[in-house]
Amino acid sequence: MGAVPFRLPDVLKVTTVNVNGLRAAAKKGYLEWLAGTDADVACLQETRAELAQLPEAVREPDGWHLVLEAAAEAKGRAGVALLSRREPSAVRAGFGVAEFDRSGRYVEADFGPVSVASLYLPSGEVGTPRQAEKERFMDTFLPFLVRRRAEVEAEGRELVVCGDWNIAHREDDLKNWRTNRKNSGFLPEEREWLTRVYEEAGFVDVVRALHPEGPGPYSWWSVRGKAFDNDAGWRIDLQVATPGLAAKAVSAVVERAESYDTRWSDHAPVTVAYDVAV
């Protein structure tokens, strides 16, 4: 008996969140959030665990199919995952670059005519090997995006790359932009690279397209000081889609916690609804 074809709902809801350690998040409210979300696909980043290390409730949540791509060598670091209401028809990990193919940075799955990817772009620190790693990732990921867009569109499909991109693109994407101009995440060359993702690769920043005016909406707040209380955040958790799918986006919401003590991650989920029936 053949597999049942995957049928998209009329409105496809995709959410993305950096969980800042899936085991830790599960103790703080992640499972309650997952049980309450109406998303069809959830993209997770910085899971920091292998499948066998996860409690059963996290590994096999009711009503969800989990795909987890852990970092093969850097244990307890990075890691991405996809949760979906139904099992995807295909899953691909990595993007064809040896250094990053088993680093827990990228996983992509097919759901009918739409592919959804979870991305954890490396965070950096100026003048350190971490920044060099980030730059190598960016140098190889952009050509992949160009190639991947051409592939999916040739197949009559769409793609959305969700995740923690670790770059604020514009001044209205972080509150304290003046004091961060020489810091990783807001360097001129990083911002220019993201411009190339939009202009050369032709992808669309879906949340910014729906909310063209800033500031924000922010999705990450430092744990230092009172960044969350003062809404001194960064907009670095993005849904970046091929133009055809981006045009179908009808709403985008950052699920900011009501208070500091109710957060289960230092990031907030970013949820977009796509009217794929149009």
From TrEMBL:
<dbReference type="InterPro" id="IPR004808">
    <property type="entry name" value="AP_endonuc_1"/>
</dbReference>
<dbReference type="InterPro" id="IPR005135">
    <property type="entry name" value="Endo/exonuclease/phosphatase"/>
</dbReference>
<feature type="binding site">
    <location>
        <position position="164"/>
    </location>
    <ligand>
        <name>Mg(2+)</name>
    </ligand>
</feature>
<feature type="site" description="Transition state stabilizer">
    <location>
        <position position="166"/>
    </location>
</feature>
<keyword id="KW-0479">Metal-binding</keyword>
<protein>
    <submittedName>
        <fullName>Exodeoxyribonuclease-3</fullName>
    </submittedName>
</protein>
<feature type="binding site">
    <location>
        <position position="46"/>
    </location>
    <ligand>
        <name>Mg(2+)</name>
    </ligand>
</feature>
<keyword id="KW-0378">Hydrolase</keyword>
<feature type="binding site">
    <location>
        <position position="18"/>
    </location>
    <ligand>
        <name>Mg(2+)</name>
    </ligand>
</feature>
<keyword id="KW-0460">Magnesium</keyword>
<dbReference type="GO" id="GO:0046872">
    <property type="term" value="F:metal ion binding"/>
</dbReference>
<feature type="domain" description="Endonuclease/exonuclease/phosphatase">
    <location>
        <begin position="16"/>
        <end position="267"/>
    </location>
</feature>
<feature type="active site">
    <location>
        <position position="120"/>
    </location>
</feature>
<dbReference type="Pfam" id="PF03372">
    <property type="entry name" value="Exo_endo_phos"/>
</dbReference>
<dbReference type="InterPro" id="IPR036691">
    <property type="entry name" value="Endo/exonu/phosph_ase_sf"/>
</dbReference>
<comment type="similarity">
    <text>Belongs to the DNA repair enzymes AP/ExoA family.</text>
</comment>
<feature type="active site" description="Proton donor/acceptor">
    <location>
        <position position="164"/>
    </location>
</feature>
<dbReference type="InterPro" id="IPR037493">
    <property type="entry name" value="ExoIII-like"/>
</dbReference>
<feature type="active site" description="Proton acceptor">
    <location>
        <position position="267"/>
    </location>
</feature>
<feature type="site" description="Important for catalytic activity">
    <location>
        <position position="237"/>
    </location>
</feature>
<feature type="binding site">
    <location>
        <position position="166"/>
    </location>
    <ligand>
        <name>Mg(2+)</name>
    </ligand>
</feature>
<feature type="site" description="Interaction with DNA substrate">
    <location>
        <position position="267"/>
    </location>
</feature>
<dbReference type="GO" id="GO:0008311">
    <property type="term" value="F:double-stranded DNA 3'-5' DNA exonuclease activity"/>
</dbReference>
<feature type="binding site">
    <location>
        <position position="266"/>
    </location>
    <ligand>
        <name>Mg(2+)</name>
    </ligand>
</feature>
<dbReference type="GO" id="GO:0006281">
    <property type="term" value="P:DNA repair"/>
</dbReference>
<keyword id="KW-0464">Manganese</keyword>
<feature type="binding site">
    <location>
        <position position="267"/>
    </location>
    <ligand>
        <name>Mg(2+)</name>
    </ligand>
</feature>
